[in-house]
Structure formats: C-alpha cells, structure tokens
User: Fold these one by one.
Assistant:
Number 1:
Amino acid sequence: MKTVTHGDLDVLSSALDDRARADAMSGAISVDVDGTPVFRRAYGRADRAHGIDNTVDTRFAMASASKAFTALAVMSLVGDGTLRLDTPVRGILNEDLPSIDDAVTVEHLLSHTSGIGDYLDEDDDGSVDDYVLSVPVHELATTEGFVRAIDGHPQKSAPGERFAYNNGGYVVLAIIAERASGVPFHDLVRDRVFTPAGLAATGFLRTDELPGDAALGYLFEDPSSLRTNVLHLPVRGNGDGGAFTTVGDVSTFWRALADGAVLPASVVEDMWRSRRDVESEGLRYGLGFWLDQAGPGIVLEGYDAGVSIRTRFDPDSRTTVTVVSNTSEGAWGPARVLREWLRDTD
C-alpha cells in the first residue's frame, strides 16, 4: 500500500460524507491521524421521537466491535497468570454448558476456532426485527445470566479444526474471566481496559435506562420509524458485544493499544497476528481483532438490530477511520466507500 497523504484522507473524507448524506445516514463518521481530526461529522437523530440530533460526542452502541474489550481483558488475565491460552475451559465451567467439548481452550474461543454451537448463529437467515433471544432480555444483565441463554447448542466441529465466527464463544470467555478472576466482567473490563486506555465515555450501558448522550438504536433506516432495539438485544451487553462509545474514544482506544497502555505492546502485536484467513470476509483474524487481507490495518466491526459500526486503525500511519450508526444498516454504505478507497490505494 502506498503512503497515504492528508490529501488522500481529504478525498476519503469527502467521499464518506457524500455517501452518508446520500444514504440519509444516522450516526457519525471520524477520520483522524494520531488523534488529530481530519474529518468528524454527525448525521441524523439520536432520538427521533424527541428530535434530538446525533453529535460527534454521542455515545453509540458497538455490537460485536466490543469483542475486542473481552479479548483484552482475557489477555490481561493471561498476563498475570490467572489464565493461560491453553487453559481448557471445562475446568472453570465445571458442570455448566456440558455441550462444550472438553478440549476447548481459551485460545480456541479467542480465535473463533472452538467449534462450539452458537446461541446467535450468524449463518442463520433472519430479519433484523426478529426476536432471536431465547430468554427474556431483562434477564441478560449479568454475565451469569447468559449461561441459560447459551446452553444446549451442540458442538459443531472439533476444537481448532476451522474458523467459525461465534458470539457464544465470547460470552463463554466473559464467564470464565469472571469466575477465574473473582471480579464481575463489566468491572474487569472497566479496570483493565477502559481506565488504562483513557476511555471516559465508553461503557456497558443498560438499554432500558440510557443516559441523555447515548443514541437509541433504531431497527429501520426510515427516519419516521420509532421502533427501537430495546426488545431485541440483551438489556446490558456482555462478552460478545454491546458496549457504548464515542468516535473520539474509538480513536483513543486504538492509540492506547498501539502505545502499550492497556497491555504490553508485544502482547497487542501478537493479538494482531493473523491466525486465520477468512476469505468470505476479505479479512484475516487474530485474537479479538480482524486484520486487513493485505495491508497493515486492524479492523473492528459490529452489526446488530439498531447497530452498525466499522472502525479501522493503521498502526503505521496511526490513522483511524470510524463509521458508526444507530440503525441496523446505516454504517454499511460509507464502510463500502472505505473498502473501495483502500483497494484503490493499494
């Protein structure tokens, strides 16, 4: 990939803005170099019913992009000896979740190679307004509350055999992190990830009591539709997703990782080392992070009812591009513009 100039980023920013406006996007877009904004703009409404606009400081849900926080918390426990990458999770789960193969390890879960059955299988066809959770959403406020939700899904393949993106696997990581450390998962992530990274606006918010600076998640793009995702997702996110953040905090997060503020730089570099080539996504996967197929970029992506986000960090140029929306599909038009731009700059 050729060296990207500020002029190139100005072209990208203009293209992202054009697409966001053409799509009537609801959300925010940010482009910055080492924390210095090149472009930052908000679109649409955080609360349609009350006419409250999104701003560049609005807190948006992250869906699966927050799997990175789980991976980092788990790796911090590996670093202090509480866990090992080769720790079999059965010894921590005990009699819970008996369908999980005894050979499944922490590393299998981190790299989506555990082969366990998934409670939210991404291969299942469905509509964004489907009710997909098997237990009432209000019961999914604590980590242990998820045990019943993810139980009973048969093993699909042998541990280590193949890559299969797995939401339930990251819930299992949260369960074992909480049990092994003796610290509630949300507190563990706050203390070991958010605080050292300096993420003042990031946290696992309850969707039934969102603060005034957080965007409601809307199922449909039509700005006249008031239907939110409050009955479609866990009331409080956990290991597989659901944190809220701002575009500014996302940039801060990437730079904190690169600078070794959360974990030693050597550990982060290893998490950013490719474990699997995922041709269907046009990406590779490390531990908790997607990677460019060819190029230096580290990528996080999330998609859920009322949530869509893609953020990419180039550790060489320290450039961050983030597109986040408080609708189910809103981020994908600008995200395609970013992918096309990256291909053209190869």
Number 2:
Amino acid sequence: MQIQASYKQIMELAAPIIVGSLAQNLIGITDVIFLGRVGEVELGACGLISIYYLVLMMIGFGISRAGQILIARRAGAGRNEEVGVITWNLFYLEMFVAFLLFLFLILLSPNVLWLFIKSQEIYDASLSYLSYRSYGIFFSLFGFVLMALYTGIGRTNIIAAVTTVLMISNVFLNYSLIFGQFGLPEMGIAGAGLASTLAEIISTVFGIGYLIYDRSLSKYNLRRFHGFDMSSMRRLVELSAPMVLQYLIGLGGWFILFALIENMGKRALSVSTVLKNVYTFLSIPAWGFASAANAIVSNLIGQGKYRRVMIAVNRTAVLSFIFTILPCLLLLLFPGTILPLFSSEAGVVSGTQALIPLLIAILLACSISVIIFNGMMGTGATTLSMFVQATAVAVYLTYAYSVTKVLNLDLQYVWTSEFLYWVIQGTLAYLYLNFGRWKELEF
C-alpha cells in the first residue's frame, strides 16, 4: 500500500490504532478503578508495578517498531514478497526475547523491586500482582507482531478488533477475580494480574484466527512458512537495538520517577497513580497518531517522496493536538465527575484535582512532541532518536531528583518534569527533521 498522507488517509490509518489503544489502555484503567475500591496500598502498588512490567514489555515493542518500519518501507516500495519473510523473523525474535523477559520477571524481580520500593506493604502487593502477570509477556509480544504487520501495510482495523476483545475479556475477568464473583476466588491485586494474562491469551487466539482467515494477506507471502533468515534478522536487530534502548531509557525513567514518588509516601503514590491513568487515557489519540506518523514517514520514504515527509508530520501533529485538547476540556470542566471513578478516597481525588491544569499542559506538549519524535524514528534514524530521548530523560530525572531529594518540594513540582521532557524531546526531533541528513539513510 502506498500512502499519500492526506488528512483523510491519516485519519483512516490512525483511527483503528486509537480505538485499539483505547481498549488496551482501558485494561490498566480497569485495574485502577477496581483496585481503588480494594485499598490505597493496592492502588499504589498497581501504579508502580504496571510501569515496571511496561518497561520490560517495551523491549518487545521497540523490536516491533523496527519490524513495522521495515514492513512499511517494503510495502511502500512495492516489494510485497519480502513482507512475509520479515514478519516471520520478527515473530522468532519476539518469542526469544519473551522467554528471556519471562525468566527475568520470575527470577530477578523480587531483588530488583526491593531496591526501589520503600514500603513493605506495597512491595508485597507488587510481587503478588507480578506472580500472575509475568506469564502474559509471551502474548503481549505476539500482539506486537500483529501490530507491526498490520500497521506497516496500512490495514489497522484488526488492531482495533483484537484489543477490543482484550478489553472486554479483561473487564469481566478483573471484576470476577478481584472481588470473587461468579464462583471464582476473591484474589485482590493478584486477581488483576491473572485477569490481564488470561485476557491476553483470549485476544491472542482471536488474533491468530483472524490472521489465518485474512485472504488479503496472500500477496505478502505470509501463509508460506519462512525459516530463519539471517539477512532479515540482522536488519531487525540493527534497527531495533537503539529503539529498545530508547524505550528502556524512556520508560525506565518513568519507573524511577514513580519510585521517587513512592518514597514521598503512600498518598503521593496513590495520587500519581490516578494522575498517570488519566494522563495515559487522554494521550491515547496522540499515541495513535504517532504510530500512524511512523508508518507514513517510512512509507513515503520507500516511495521516494521526501518532500511530503514534513507535510505528513505537520498534518498529523495538527490532528493529534485537536483530538487531545477536546477531552482535556472535559476534564477541566468536570473533574468532580471523572476523578472519583478512579478512587473512593476523598484525599486522593482532591490531591489529583489540584494537578489537573499541569496535566493538561503536559498532554498538549505530548500531543505535538510525540508526533515529531515518531516522524523522526520513521526515517530510520533510530540511533539518533535514542540519544535524543536519553538527553530528555537525563534532564527529566535530574530535575525530578533535585525536586524530591534535595529541595523536598510538593508533588506538582515533581510532575513538572514530564512537561520538561516533552519540550526537550520534541525540539531536538524537530531540528533533526528540518536539518538532519535522513534522506541518505538506507536499510
């Protein structure tokens, strides 16, 4: 599929990703809504351990982004027969990485978490959640293979379908296993971990079924079994290595930030958990458009249409900003209606509400910055994008550490670091797209 990057085409490509991301993120929000009724310890532990799990899961996501770039580049150039080879080898690589991550989660997590978590209650609750959630890593990474394939060829409807199945399954299982409904045991936070893993198994079976019966994939040579291909694997590893480091740096910084907040006390962590989930939910459109921008830029370069790259990035950024600011206005107007959904603790709700103006500023900065940065990654400049993110995270964590450990300031000053992060990252990526030598990159 060759993309022209009109507003209509950007929307057609991004909309299913946004719907899919909405369903995916509702899983985390469901955990918070249910666990917010169990207790403040469970709520805080869920916020912290979900980021820890996400950090490791993003290793697979970084690899899938490399696969998506390669698939989009081949599809844009009309080299459809190579898509199947890349997809199969992406699957092999993801499953190998999933096995290594599973061993890490099971064997090393207790020691790693002990270094960051101060509260014994939160530490115990975190391990209880992780004891079941760890098994989902295989299905999470398989989902990334599907996302890379369908986004790369410009057919994103399946992503929305699979993640909708994931969301519905997770809501039902969360309610059943956390509170002990429908004859199932009452497991608390451990039930949330088990529910997410079972939901991923269900959605994976659905995704495999769709893959088998999707006749439109025949031209991509996917139905034929492809063995290990050294050339394709080398391209995936070379392109994904800096992207994996980039995601580890970015989300690792996010985890360290929450560890710093956990040291400020149980209430600060609970407020930040609610704020994080509202933040994640309202940034869904931006991340959907970002994924589209990545695929569009790579596809345009594959067609040799270099002049349309910045046009595509700018148009996508405009749409991202519009679709972000609208729900932000609802949050600003009706905080007393929205925030109590996440916690029944009045102190947690009031503490979160005080940070809403800052959160909106962060979201608007994110809506532009994340598009520009993903446009940069779409050019294939993955090593440079890693250094851009590393620079932004270094400034971000230095500021956050100074605020929490040196100056002992309030939570709002800690969260200001997130706004600083997006401004730095977006500015550096914009400079590269305008003045960098990305047209010369070959892979």
Number 3:
Amino acid sequence: MINEIFLQSAGGAGMMNIVLFGGILLVFYFFIIRPQAQKQKQQVAFSNSLEKGQEVATNSGIIGKINKIEDDFVFIQIDPKTYIKVFKSAVSKEMTDALNSEKKK
C-alpha cells in the first residue's frame, strides 16, 4: 500500500518536471529566440535595400554616404576624397535608423 502511494506521487513529480521544462523552453523561444530571429530578418532586408547616395552608419560608428555597391561590399564616402570598403552586413540598421531620426529633429 505504501509502495503504491510512493509510486503514484513519484510519477506525478516526473510529469511536473516535464511540464516545467516545456514551459522554460517556451519562455526562451518567445522572449529570446523569436525576437532575435525577427531582428536578423530585418537586418538582412535592410542590407538588401541599400542604395547609392543613402547615408548610413556602420556597426563601428562610421557615418557616410554609399558611393558604390558591389556584391557583398559597400563603398562608403566619409570625406570628399576618402572612401572605405565594408561588408554590407557591417552597415547597421539600428544605427542608421537612429541617425536618420536624429536628423529629422
């Protein structure tokens, strides 16, 4: 009789552990994984929509205008005779949006 009660309560605890673990996975998915994936999709879309003459900011904080786009590279003019070559992925959507919103003020 005592063994049966012990086995029933032990089986319930195992089920609670599974439910708790599933809940933790859901929290990680909705609060960490999903927002990061959406942010990455927005960055890729932004990188693909870059155009010549657009003022942008890189991840390292360099601000300039796009002079030329070749495959995965962007040539940014930071001074009248100074150009730098960076990867498209180095152009930051967040920093460029902040730069543009700052100019509108």
